[in-house]
Amino acid sequence: MGETAKKTVLYEEHLALHAKMVEFSGFLMPVSYDSIIQEHLCVRQHVGIFDISHMGQISVRGKDVFSFLQYLIPNNLSHLTNGKILYSALCNEQGGIVDDILVYQKSKEDYLIVVNASNTHKDFQWIASQAKRYSGSKVADITPIFAFFAVQGPQSLSLMEKIGFKVSSLGYYHFVETKFENDPVLISRTGYTGEDGFEILLPKALAVSLWNRFLKEGAPFQVKPIGLGARDTLRLEPCFSLYGHELSDSITPLEAGIGWTVDFSKEDFIGKTGLLNNPGTRRLVGFEMLDKGIPRNGYPVYKNGQKIGVVTSGSYLPSLGKNMGLALVEGTNDIGIPIEVEVRANRLKAVTVKKPFYVPLNRRKK
Amino acid sequence: MSSSVPEDLKYTQTHEWVRFNGSKAVVGITDHAQHELTDIVFVEPPKTGKIFEAGNVAAVVESVKVASDIYAPVSGTVTSVNTELEKNPGLINSDPYGKGWIFELETTDTGENLLDAASYGKLV
User: Per-residue pLDDT for B50 more than 60?
Assistant: First the structure.
């Protein structure tokens, strides 16, 4: 473990809960407290709480920020009203993905951007360097000020209400700035699991007491603390992308299956020319193993004996009881295509399948 | 976290255990190892009849997060593998020294180079 690994404000709480700690993106984080499978199923069936304080927050404020952000991101900021959140890729000039981000509009002069922990510094540098052209834009990395929790699962609303957060009318991808006791908190109806849920940005000083309150008040709902291991399998089932796996500086949003965040009708944005000239030829496909074996990041993928790409993420998926994954491949985007995944020098049979593997709550037909 | 280290077994630095019974050596992974790996979801056993030198990769055990190599603690020929693990790999978690055994070797090695319970217990 690196000596410089940072600890979140909940570090001691994780140790007290017997978490296995790993270094992730420069932070010592819980990978699991007990069993990844049990934590995963708890979020699908009940409710789980996650310490996601490692994630980055960047504040962008000033009178020109609407036009600045409209130029910065490929998605269209005019979808936002105050209190709404927009998912977008953040692209470089070539159209490669710098990060995937959430943009919160407090007002047209005040935005919060939530970014991946592994990219906080890179994103801040990138956004600040681009902002120089817009004299009225102030960009600040405010990550160190806050703790960040996710509360996810079918019982998440009941638990939030029990603790005193009045969030039943909060819509998906909306947020509210409110108070908990006397402290300011920002609550959004967002998450990375495919279940109903909330994310809470709060002052560090409040974090330990609120974390323990969730565990105590959540006991009747069978709440569990959830580590990064289950966070990964929970996001893979609904096929949510993870930076460094499905997304990178050398993968375009069109290849990664998040082309819907790119609005070519906008007059200009960073990466527009690059994406129009070179949208990328690979596609992200979902697949299920037919032979016995677990696909993992980096394993080669073959079709008719030809190498067509690599696995970006793969795992045993606890809700489905299957070994499945995502792969970035050339030449096919269809489902039902026989492929082979090379696992320890053996080519194992697999087949491409429909994404998502697990239908997220917001996409479920009533 | 204290883990169980039975007295009658021999151990490796890489967290395999061996139970000698005449010329047979039954191999599995320790309670400490299963606890570190958490939920075992897949086991790739060796083929019966395969010959290993001590230290060769003989099997792979996969948890949700990682694939881990299992090394042959002694040289020998695989005489049997635990086929129950195909259906229920979690036996390694629930009963690492019993129903969670992984493979059996025919060997002439008596395990002098392996750790006894006291030495292994100090490692974990």
Answer: yes
